[in-house]
Amino acid sequence: xxxxxxxxxxxxxxxxxxxxxxxxxxxxxxxxxxxxxxxxxxxxxxxxxxxxxxxxxxxxxxxxxxxxxxxxxxxxxxxxxxxxxxxxxxxxxxxxxxxxxxxxxxxxxxxxxxxxxxxxxxxxxxxxxxxxxxxxxxxxxxxxxxxxxxxxxxxxxxxxxxxxxxxxxxxxxxxxxxxxxxxxxxxxxxxxxxxxxxxxxxxxxxxxxxxxxxx
Length: 215
Known about the structure:
This protein is mostly helical. It folds into two domains: 8-41 and 53-89, no CATH class; 96-204. The protein has helices at residues 8-19, 24-38, 59-71, 76-89, 96-129, 136-165, 174-196, 203-214.
């Protein structure tokens, strides 16, 4: 164990600075000692792939950072990292709540898709027999509208994420993302419409029926 006496003001400033680093004051002091003794930066922790960056903040800025991180249930370092990734990499960053919401929407979209597939099979079978379930068209359209609703919820979450991190509209990848989502929705809707469209009975059956009627 290594200890040292320093002025109270210097100790306070070091603690403030260390709060914004990985591991707090003890870890920061350990890294400084390793750097001084070995003449090189200390090795990264297991699983780490980047370099640590220290940021100086005024007290009101530090308080604002702490509040923002606490609101998202993360650390100040992770909050700053997410902010940098959004602005430099144009990639959204999710909190635990947002991740759970995205997972819920994904499950809902899969459920709607499964329901549409089941409805399509029933309608295809009914088309071969000439017996159609009542209100089948309304049910099909309701399923498609549910799918559209879930896709709109998904786009709202992406847009809200960029709003939170303050990414300007001019640099947002919303056009590409929107095109991808719209294309997926169009493909799903086209597939559902084709499968839900009643099939006409083959002409040969109609000719046979007319022939039987004449007999």
